[in-house]
Amino acid sequence: MDALTTALIGAAGVVAAVLLQYAAVRGLRVALLAYQPLSGEHTDSALYERSVWTPGEGGLLPVWLALLASGLLGATALRSADWPWWPALGLWAFAVGWDLWAWERVAASVKFVTWRRGWRKSARRVAISDLRDVLVVERNRPTRGPAWLRPGVCQFVLMLKDGKAVKLPRTGASLGGEGRVEDLANFVRLQMDVVADNRRRAAADKRAALRRALHPMAPAHPATKLDPSALPRG
After folding, report:
1. How far apart are CA 61 and CA 53, in angstroms?
2. Which residues contact 208 (CB under 8 A, 6 or more apart)?
3. Pairing with 154, which of 42, 115, 209, 230 sits 20 to 30 Å away (CA)?
4. Do 181 and 171 form a contact (C-beta atoms < 8 A)?
5. Measured between alpha carbons, how far is 53 from 153 in angstroms, rounded to an integer?
6. Considering the chain, what percentage of its residues have pLDDT values greater than 90?
7. Residue ranges of the alpha helices (H) in the chain?
8. What angle (nearest 5°) sits at the alpha carbon of residue 21, between those of residues 16 and 26?
9. What pLDDT shows up at residue 1?
């Protein structure tokens, strides 16, 4: 019974460490994006980021190992007054810092799609006018069992006009991840339609100007001009 109690307390400590880390990182990310939007001088109209729940991401392994150790050490400190709290807190802080340092996110404005991999890596940007198409690719992990045990992964792919495909950061499809990627894709498609409509209008205006230049209107014959004295006076 004591072993079962120890296991339950350890599991509860790990869950608490994970939830607290998720809440802290989420709040810090919101504050950082409000201070410095990923789109620069433009507004981040749509955004998604790699979640800590993204399966198969090696960059998140240190986060999960630190949270696991933090939860177990915290549970041990809770049961034993002689066990210090600082190792658990230190590992939890490491998990928060690593998650922020390895932060991957994608944002779209009315003119650009911008993404960044890692805390210190510079952002990359593609103009929406250079896009031919956008895709949302979802995959399940190649494991057996029911679908709910096989968490999916979403990825946003840009198809450029020069034929290249640019794969942007992945994120977990669970907990609303797929919906955020789809929202960003729909927003980019809407901006692509706006760009295409503006180009069609510009081309139509150019053709109309060319026709007017090639076929100027002939001046009116004097005989066809209206004599103001002939107008009835009221």
Report:
1. 11
2. none
3. 42
4. yes
5. 9
6. 33
7. 2-35, 61-79, 86-101, 177-214
8. 130
9. 47
Single-letter residue type at 227: D
Express as a percent the part of the chain with pLDDT over 70.
84
pLDDT digits (tens, 9 = 90+) for 160-184: 998 899 999 999 887 788 889 999 9
- Give me the amino acid identity at 47: L
Please give the model's pTM, rounded to 2 decimal places. Answer: 0.76
Q: Is 154 helix (H, G, I), strand (E, B) or coil?
A: strand
The HSE-up count of residue 66 (CA atoms within 13 Å, CB side) is: 20
| CA atoms within 13 Å, Cβ hemisphere of 154 | 25
Residue 157 has pLDDT above 80, yes or no: yes
**CA–CA distance, 19 with 53 (Å, rounded to integer):** 12
Gap between the Cα atoms of 173 and 185, Å rounded: 14
Q: What is the Cα–Cα distance from 180 to 125, expressed in whole angstroms?
A: 19
> With b meaning 16 or more CB within 10 Å and e meaning fewer, what string describes 202-234?
eeeeeeeeeeeeeeeeeeeeeeeeeeeeeeeee
Collapsing DSSP to helix, strand or coil, 177 comes out as: helix
- Whole-angstrom Cα distance, residue 113 to residue 124? 8
Helix (H) or strand (E) holding 117: strand 112-117
**How far is the CA of 199 from the CAs of 6, 87, 109, 134, 202, in angstroms?**
67, 60, 19, 19, 5
